[in-house]
Design brief:
- The protein is an alpha+beta fold.
- The protein has one domain: Domain of unknown function DUF1254 (Immunoglobulin-like).
- Helix content is about 35%, strand content about 30%.
- It has four helices and nine strands.
- The chain has helices at about 1-40, 50-60, 130-135, 160-170, and strands at about 50, 65-75, 80-85, 90-95, 100-105, 115-120, 140-145, 150-160, 175-180.
- Strand 6 (about 115-120), helix 3 (about 130-135) and strand 7 form a beta-alpha-beta unit.
- It is globular, with a radius of gyration of 20 Å.
């Protein structure tokens, strides 16, 4: 009886370890692979409005009535600047690490006049470097240190029907994601 219990316990441990590895690491790996195949191939960062097929592949658990625009970026080539113009409809912005961890999120109700200016940069090595960078900024800018070299910013817009989808897609083009100054 002791031999059977031992092997049963070993089997359960292997199943638990396999499940934990899958749950903890596979989603980030899968997302990174999809983004690299589809979006990281572009040389300069810019918001790309996803079509319905891309949205279902990249965000299968999200509401299909939400329009997504994605901006992949790499901060090793310099800082990335995200500028958001005043918008008439609800929007939200989430910034993710290469592993799929969200490290910054904001929506239109958290900004003044729905305007936003974000600079994403590499983590600063020197203690006083952040203070130097803060002095160069104008008051309405936000500086974010990216935990990984690559990542992506995701804009979400609520779409009421198919007619407003094209209007919102045009409005999304007012939101910029480009190399910083």
């Amino acid at each position: 009886m002791n031999g059977k219990f031992f092997w049963l316990l070993i089997t359960v441990i292997f199943i638990l370890v396999g499940h934990l590895v899958y749950v903890l690491f596979f989603p980030g790996y899968k997302m990174t692979g999809k983004l690299q195949a589809d979006l990281f191939s572009q040389s300069t960062p810019a918001f790309i409005v996803l079509n319905e097929k891309q949205m279902i592949e990249l965000f299968p658990a999200e509401d299909p009535s939400v329009l997504h625009a994605v901006c992949p970026f790499d901060v090793t080539q310099g800082s990335v600047r995200i500028s958001i113009a005043p918008a008439e409809r609800y929007w939200s912005l989430s910034i993710y690490s290469q592993k799929g961890d969200s490290y910054y999120a904001i929506n239109d109700s958290q900004t003044i006049d729905s305007k936003l200016d974000i600079h994403i940069q590499q983590a600063v090595q020197k203690e006083n470097a952040l203070e130097e960078n803060q002095r160069k900024l104008v008051p309405d800018q936000t500086v974010i240190e990216a935990p990984t070299e690559k990542g992506w910013a995701v804009l979400r817009f609520r779409v009421l029907n198919q007619i407003t989808r094209s209007v919102i897609a045009e409005q999304a083009k007012l939101f910029t994601c480009k190399r910083g100054d």
